[in-house]
Amino acid sequence: MAKRCKIYLLIFMLSITAACSDSTGLYKNAGTSEAFTPTNKVKILFLSISDSDVRENIREHYIKANLEKEMPDLEVEFDLGGGGQDYANKLKVYNSSGNMPDVWFSEQNLSTVVIDSGNALDLAPYIYKWEFDKKFTEKEFIMPDKNGRIYSVQSGNDMFTTPRLWYHKNIFKRYGIQVPNTYDELLKVCELLKVKGLVPISISGRDGWTLNLHLLQTMIMAEEPQVALDMLNGNTDFTNPVIQRALERIRKLVQVGAFPYNTANLDYEPAINMYTSGRAAMLSAFSWELPRLEKLAPDTDFMPWPSVRGGTDNTKAVQYWGAPLSGYMVWAKTKNPEAAARFAMYCATQDALYYNIESKAPTMLNTGVRIENTSALAKKDLKQLDMAEIKIPSIWSAAFNTRTSAEISVQNRKLLTGRYSPDEYIKAINPLWIENAKEIRERSYDIHYKFHPQP
Questions:
Q1: Where in the chain are the domains?
Q2: Going by CATH, does the domain composed of 162-317+380-448 fall within 3.10.450.50?
Q3: Strand order of the sheet with strand 163-168?
Q4: What are phi and psi of 379, to 5 degrees?
Q5: What InterPro entries would the database entry show (predicted)?
Q6: How sure is the predictor about 39, in pLDDT bands with cuts at 50, 70 and 90?
Q7: pLDDT digits 0-9 by tens, 415-433
Q8: What are phi and psi of 103, to 5 degrees?
Q9: Comparing 17-159+322-373 with 162-317+380-448, is the CATH topology the same?
Q10: How far is CA 215 from CA 163, 223, 413, in A?
Q11: 3-state helix/strand/coil string of 188-231
Q12: CB within 8 A of 220, min separation 6: which ones?
C-alpha cells in the first residue's frame, strides 16, 4: 500500500434527543417567510428518485408531509423518476429538451452535463442571502467553485455512508463459519454457503447497480487505495493492472456462485429482501440500509471488506458515498427562482431530518435534532469510519460523466454473467474513460481529492 495517509473528515456526532421536523427557522430567521406569501401558490415541478424505501420515505413522510406547514406558498407536482439508469435517462431527456423540472436530485455524474448545458441555476446568491451555508458543520459541503458558483445543496449524510458487507451472525454460527479476512477466504466461504443451499452474497445486479456504485471500487481499494484516488483525479485508466485484477476478482465471485441466480436482472429491493428473509447469508450494500437491516434481520452485523493480502489492515481505507455536485439542483430558467431555490434547500433539510430522526445518523447539515439511543451496530459503523486513515468518495458519483456511467452500467451487467472477460470490459470502457479523465483534469468546477499525510 502507498504511504500511510488520510483524507480529513470530521465526524460530527450530534448529541442526544429526537424528533423534531421543523425547518421553518431556515426561512423565518432569514426574513424570507413573509416575502413569499402570494395569493396564488407558486407551482413547482419536482423530479424525485423513487427506487428505494429510503427515497420513498423521505419524499412521502418528510418532503410531502411537512410541505404545507413549512412552505404553504408552494404547490409541488411530484414526477417519480424511478432510479438507477432509468432516472439518469429521464433526467438526460429533460436536459436535452431544455425544458427541465424546477427542482430535481442529481448525482455528480448527471450534474456536470446539466451545468455544461447551462440548465443549472447558481444557488450561491440565495444560499448566502438566507445564510443556509451557516447551517453546515463542514463548509466543504457548501463551497463554491473557483468562479463563486454553487449548483447543488445536500444534507451531508453521504460522508457518513459507506459500503458494507453485511452478514447474518446466526447463519455463520450455524455452519461454523469464521468472518473472512482475505479475498481468498471470502471465496471459500461463498463456496461453502452455496453447498448449503444459500445465496452467499445478495447484490442488486440490474444495470450493474452494486458494481457501479461501490463493488468495483471496493475491489480496487482492497489491493491499492491510491489507484482509486488516481481514478478520481483522472490520473490513471482501466488498463491499470490493479483495476484489471479487481475486475477478475468480481468475475471469479460470479463463477463460484457468490451472487444470486440471474443477478444481472435483480432489482434493488428484491436484493435487500433476499437478505432480510434469510435466503442470503450476506449483503453488499451501503450503510444507509443499517436501520432497516437491524429491524428486519436483528442478527445482522458487518465485516470489514476482505483485503487481497493477508496481514493487511482492511479497516484503514474506506469508500464513502457522494460528491461535491451531488444534491438538489434548480433549473436555470425556472419561472420562480427564489421559490425553487427555497424548495431545494427545504428538500436538503428534510433529507437531513430523515437521517437524524429515522436512521439516527449524523449529517453535516445541522437540523438542531439531537440523536439518542443509537444502536451498538450504528456506533460500530461510525467508529470504524471515523478511525479509517484513508477515505475516498465514490468514483461512480464523483468522477464518471454520463457517457462513462451509462457504458459502465452495460459493462458491469455483462461482467455479472461470468462469461465476459476483463480484457473485453477494458477494451469497451477505456476509450470513453480516457475522454472522461481529460474532462476531470480540465473542468472549471473540479475539486481534486487528496490524501493528507498524517502528523
A1: 17-159+322-373, 162-317+380-448
A2: no
A3: 199-202, 280-286, 163-168, 300-303
A4: -65, -40
A5: Bact_solute-bd_prot1, SBP
A6: low
A7: 999 999 999 999 999 999 9
A8: -140, 145
A9: yes
A10: 8, 13, 13
A11: HHHHHHHHCCCEEEECCCHHHHHHHHHHHHHHHHCCCHHHHHHH
A12: 227, 228, 231, 242, 243, 246
Helix (H) or strand (E) holding 320: strand 317-320
Summarised one tens digit per residue, pLDDT across range 264-303 is: 999 999 999 999 999 999 999 999 899 999 999 999 999 9
414: which 3 cell numbers?
455483462
Sheet holding 74-80, edge to edge: 74-80, 42-48, 103-106, 327-330
User: How far is it, in rounded angstroms, from Cα 166 to Cα 283?
Assistant: 5
Cα–Cα distances in Å, from 346 out to 91, 279, 322, 342? 21, 39, 19, 6
CA 359, 360, 365, 367 dihedral sign is positive
Write down the mean pLDDT value for the chain.
Answer: 86
Note the Cα 204 to chain centre separation in Å.
14
For the ranges 126-140, 307-321, 425-439, the maximum mean pLDDT occurs at: 425-439
Q: How many CB atoms lie within 10 A of CB 252?
A: 15
Cell of 340: 425553487
Question: Among 3.90.1640.10, 3.90.79.10, 3.40.190.10, 2.40.70.10, what is the CATH number of 17-159+322-373?
Answer: 3.40.190.10
Q: How far apart are CA 200 and CA 185, in angstroms?
A: 13
